[in-house]
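Two proteins were folded this term; both appear here.
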Amino acid sequence: MTNKIRADLVAILALLAFVLTGILSPIEALSGFSNSVVIMIAALFVIGAGILRTGLAQMAGSLLLKYSDDSEKRLFILLLVIVASVGAFMSNTGTVALMLPIVVSIAISIKSSPSKYLIPLSYMASFSGLLTLIASPPNLIVSQMLVDNGYEKLSFFQITPIGIIGVVVGIIYLYFVRNKLLPKRKSATTDVDNKLSAKQLATDYELGGNLFLLKVPAISGLVGKRLAQLKIPATYHLCILKISRKSTEGMNLLPMNFHEMAGPNSFIQEKDRLYIQGSRSNVEKFAFDYNLSIEESSSEADELVSKQLGIAEVLLTPHSSFINETLRSIGFREKYNLNILGINRQGEYVEKDMSKQTLRFGDALLVQGTWDSIELLSRDTRNVVVIGQPKEHASMAAASGKASIAGAIMILMVLLMVLEIFPAVISVLIGAALMILTGCVRNMDDAYGQINWESVVLIGAMLPMATALEKTGGMVLLSEGIIQFMGGLGPLGVLGGIFFITMLFGQFISNTATAVLFAPIGLSAALSIGVSPYPFLIAVAVGASMAFSTPVASPTNALVMTAGGYQFKDFVKIGVPLQFIMLIVMMIAIPILFPL
């Protein structure tokens, strides 16, 4: 609670304490890391990256903004309603992982802090777990408990009225506290908005009007020749930056345009498209001489960036060996396999005769080439500093235009989970693998880089706590004591006691573990006082899902903690009042809908 030690380290220390004191064996202590929930969360980060990289999150956010009519209040409510609707048919963890990039994209687009939206996202996903039987593990656990003891199982929508009440109360509460209790912190997630984009770089270096797209017909004299034979820079004062042609090369399963960085050994083929930098008059003369057609390009930034090629800004370090040298003398292109598109010298942009310019400290170079070459250049820290994150830009470029593919993968995953064709974790892993195979996520390295390992370690290390509490008998002792204490108030008092203790322990262990431990206690309490077990087991399912007051209460809270830049006290401040409101509401609603 002090937040002086990172949450994941605290979880590891707790895990070690259980082993060192003999409460858990090493196998039991490490069992959380083999739990399907942990694997599923890691895979969901990959799916979330695909949704964000392809622009699907931005498209969904734009659609939400359109229907909210630029009203922040309407947007907030609409967002929570959509989260509840999605969460009714899949796990709350899956719901948050899928919606998180969309919510962050919306927050950035309206210049707001994601922290205003991510705790409500997590809470509403928990409420949505009460809308259908399959939406939350506790629902399935209490339903099975009824079957095992000779009662009718819960139907698919039997718990839905309770869920609707929870969703409505949750939306009303969050609506009124959103500007008072929710923090407005900048999180690491918003940094993506501050990175220099290719479009911004193209604008800064005044490339507009200097980049042209030429198509090579079969009759052109360029076909079948190497660029070294043509001597285009010397004859026409033009620089061919890249060659684009149709290809199905690479690991990508779908047809794509292959972009090759132009070099002396590049061969020109029929139907190639050449991207050339230079003046219009020189380009027109070159096109006339070789029977080329000049086509309109969409924008400089779009044409300079692709899955294979990109641009970046490079600064010279104070001790760079490039200072007082020319690009030609240092053999920059040959050494790094990169083109120089422009030089920024104290705000003035040099684009002509760059190879003859003597470089000075403070110069910034705009380079173009393969993403791998740009990454290699970034390692030469003695001579240059590459601004921004080439890997991030490469991933965004690789996924560009694949929003529909990412959407189809997401729909397929949800259908597999709803129809229960495979276990939920397998459905999610299928989605993650498809994101990589279709290029929505650039490659395996990119996929690993998108996983928030802090959240994975935190949840994996906390799961064995339920085993420790069960083995020591402490939970049963406390719960039975509360039942005895509340027994004098009649069946409603015992029901309230069961709900409260379930909700209390649900703040520290998973809702699944809480339901497993308290379902038999709830059933036993109901039978001992001679009332229907249904309201008691419904109280266990609902109480286990009311995980609002700590970041470790639910995987969804852990997921949004890092993304929103939250602290432990934020969950306490917002969650505790909501817990007591729900206690009062559910003690009225449950006996009415499920009579004692």
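Next, the second protein.
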Amino acid sequence: MRRPVRMLSVSILAVVLAAAGCSKNTGDDDGSGDQTEVSTQTATLAENSDGPAPEVPGAKKGGTVTIYTSGGFEHLDPQQNYVVPAQTTGTNLLYRTLTQYRENGDGKLEVVGDLATNTGEESNGGRTWKYTLKDGLKYEDGSPITAHDVAYGVARSFSPDLPNGAHYLQQWLVGSAEYNAKYKGPYNGGSKIPPGVQVPDDKTIIFTFPEPHADMPFMAAMTTVSPVPAARDTKIQYDNRPFSSGPYKIQTHNRTQKMVLVRNEHWDPKTDPIRHNYPDQYVIEFTRTDVQASELLISDAGAAQTSLTFQDLNIPASVYPKAVQSAKDRILTGPTQFVWLINFNNQRVKDLKVRQALNYAIDRQGMLKVWGSYAGNPATTLLSPTTSGYQNYNAYDGGPNGNIEKAKELLGGKTVKLTYGYRNTERNQAIAAFLRSSLKPAGFELNIQPIDEDQYYTVIGKKNNQFDLYMYGWGADWPGGGTVIPPLWDGDRIVPEGNNNTAYLDDPKTNAEIDRILSLSDLTEADKAWAALDKDIMTRLAPTVPVIYDKQTTLYGSKIGGIYLSKPYGNSGLNNLYVK
């Protein structure tokens, strides 16, 4: 996030992280869609980044934990990993980053040095950041993790062959959204060290940016900076078998069936302030539907006792009453930082009145009944209520069930044909069918087409995709609107593939205002400006339809201990997990 701030000593820098509060499920949700109360959590930069992580009371080693998730991971390669289930698996179990979040589910949240000895040493007015690696860091084969490996990981993130990860650091180092104009990564003869990076020795890596970036300690927790030894780099095939620097390593991985993780015997807990390796192994199953997973966990029999679901398998509406009745004390619930949007492909849907009409016609309460009314609240803004500076508004107030007459008026009696692409899961099939039927009276004729779930974001991230509409979920990568508005709505960041701006909005006024806000040195002023731009984008352009503020509502077995809702990831946290 290009957000320079007033210069503060890193040792005392504290940033407000607007994070969701976690609560027990009472089973009293009446489906009214009232806003769930959320808390504002302060994430501080910790002074002590030493390991090992504090022991979890009652935890012991042993057992197998099974995770049910929806479909194979789209990308497990750290430099392409940008979807929450895969991110949680990667950062908690498989690989490490320069910094990371330390949390225990008690509300306290810190940024600590992970591979690094601290959260970074800042100089040069915030333009230069130095990281020193800890002693004793090793990969799964016992070889040392070096600063050159971190630099190489960053270098490969520039490659056009690996377009699907976060793009903040590449843009910061080059000083431009079009970073490939200067450097295209280490393949095809490129340097193994990217521009703006120095590696004076095996323990030291230095980043120098054209502009100040006080948010670097947060950026350094992104998997962009995960180490990759050049000798192990299999380019696009690295998705199948990343080389472990974390507490577990991959034993087997079938992308359509399951992945089995076992302990990495060369991971040293003395170097790690956040992770544990209590379970003997993790089995991640990719074949369960949300109904199947929920029914298994409600039964709490056999292996289901030591199983859990990730946030992509929230309890479905058809099973929710049974879950509350039979497994009320095993529901992990709480609002997350994510907003679900129905994005227009603005390259294809160019008529503003069409976009405004669909905003008026959308039946959010009906969607929530299909989605699960307990699993979110109606959304009308681009920023989540958990984001600092959030301001509530509704630019197209069609009421809770939509205003069909207003939509028909805007369409002038025309029938508009649109192609809606959806991630091919049970829930998204039901949502697609609901949208097709509920929007038809307004004059929309939806052709609904499935997209393989392990290819979904790759497909809609291509600029030349052939869809008019699709669902897109986004949450702040770290505090504030600067990790929401720029990646989603800055037209200068649109590239051939790997886009986060999947609405393909390229509006000069919006682009210029994003640049202006990113140059502000006052965080409070910037937060207000992001909220104002949020409203301006929707009021003036209607490039999307905000529909749901997300809430995790998932199940876990009775013999799972140490589970909590992870605030940075909006998912089941794994760092403290153990088998009772």
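The first strand starts at residue 14 and ends at 17. Confidence is low (pLDDT under 50) at residues 1-41. These notes refer to the second protein only.
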